[in-house]
Amino acid sequence: xxxxxxxxxxxxxxxxxxxxxxNAIVSLQMLPGTKLSEAEIAKRFGVSRxxxxxxxxxxxxxxxxxxxxxxxxKVRGFSMERIAHARFVRLAVEIEVVRSAxxxxxxxxxxxxxxxxxxxxxxxxDHDTEEFHRLDYEFHKLICTLAGHKMVFETIQQCKxxxxxxxxxxxxxxxxxxxxxxxxxxxxxxxxxGDANRAADVVRQHLGxxxxxxxAIHRAHSEYFE
Length: 226
Description:
Number of strands: 3
Low-confidence stretches: none
Helix content: over 70%
Radius of gyration: 20 Å
Mean pLDDT: 90
Structural class: mainly alpha
Number of helices: 9
Shape: elongated
Largest sheet: 3 strands, antiparallel
Distance between the termini: 42 Å
């Protein structure tokens, strides 16, 4: 039976490797099609191959890696089918979240959203795309939390992971970040006014903005897609 300390140590190492590779993949430091070697990654992190193998398996479960027997493991390409499915699920969930938020919203909740939105505006002014991307993530998470549906964000997060790399490409242009910020401001106002129908419409428009981005990237970089 494996020693408990060894098991915990391996899990910790696996988490470290997973987080580093995950961040590199979703930030497009590793582009779709990039080949990865267990041996090379293990050498780079100074660990054995087992935690690397475990990290690879976790990344594959999130559709970020493609592990093929007797062939090189590679960063998985985008899938139009998976993206469409994730978008549908996320849209349905977020609409219910904002409807719930409208029914229970407090002035203090609006103040917390306002702080996040102000930080988004500052990130755009500083041309800090990475920070804006993080704040965008926190904005949607905060609405779930304040609406009393903190655990629901796990589902939204799973859907976001299907398209996060595309979001990074989209947020590379300041004009698009400004458009998303305007959506956030409009959504916050609708929730604050308790206007559930308006909030739902904003969510549809906000999430639908990715459609044109996906189509444009698909045309320009078909090699990134399966």
